[in-house]
Amino acid sequence: MQYQMNELAKRTGLSKDTIRYYIKIGLLKPDRNPGNGYKLFDGKDIQRLRFICKAKYLGFTLKEIKQIILECEQGHDACPMVRKFLWRHIEANSKHLKELADLQNRMEQAWEKWQTMPDSQTKTDEYCAMIESVVSSDIAIDCSNQMDKHNRTYGADNTGHPEKSL
Q: Is residue 52 in some structural domain?
């Protein structure tokens, strides 16, 4: 049985825009109705969309999902690739969770300290006394790491031009 876009969207719960995007990036390759040019989908497209949704649920990127599908279409076992992708995500998530836990700890420590500090007029050489109260030695390493990470990602001037400095 073949379906048009509206029916495919209803059957999968995906928006038509999402389906169009998946077509655009090559995750779906619908047939065309020779009489009117409408895109036509079948059960395999529904199965593929369900696979894409499950893979996204597990944290795979669309680029990775496309690689997995291409591997299968070429008759290869995609499971080793899937394991490699998943392990990379696990490692990245672990690192990110640690960074978030460290940030949460710093925020909670600042919150506790700031509960006893009065709101005060900011001096001309300060921005906010509470933030200024953070011990400089605690942030020196973190700040330089953040700047290094930022410059590698965006360039020194925020626009991707490392030759310009901040």
A: yes
